[in-house]
Design a protein that fits this description.
Layout lengths: L1 E4 L10 E6 L6 H12 L6 E7 L9 H11 L3 E5 L3 H4 L7
Parallel strand pairs: 1-4, 2-3, 3-4
């Protein structure tokens, strides 16, 4: 699994299925979201998890989260701090 920490611009990842959330722990809701993007791998898409605001107050460590998501079949984990710029970004600008 590829791990990327976003500092400035979002990377361009072609043909991907993305789920967005905090992913501070991997509870049943997170598992369902990941299962949905994993299904898209059959169509040739990369399974991408975009974890927002994960710098503090996490249930899992970064290493634990990476291991669990990789075991689930995730191809790319993007970690992104939840800044004011991102908080106020319109969906079509992502």
């Amino acid at each position: 699994m590829e791990y990327l920490r976003i500092e400035n611009d979002f990377p361009r990842i072609s043909h991907s299925a993305v789920t967005l959330g905090k992913f501070d722990g991997i509870h049943r809701g997170h598992q369902k979201l990941v299962e949905k993007i994993i299904e898209q791998k059959q169509e040739g898409a990369q399974a991408v998890v975009l974890a927002l605001g994960t710098a503090s107050r996490t249930i899992l460590t970064k290493e634990e989260r990476c291991r669990v998501l990789e075991e689930m079949g995730v191809d790319v984990l993007l970690e992104c701090p939840l800044t004011d710029r991102i908080r106020h970004m319109k969906a079509e600008n992502l």
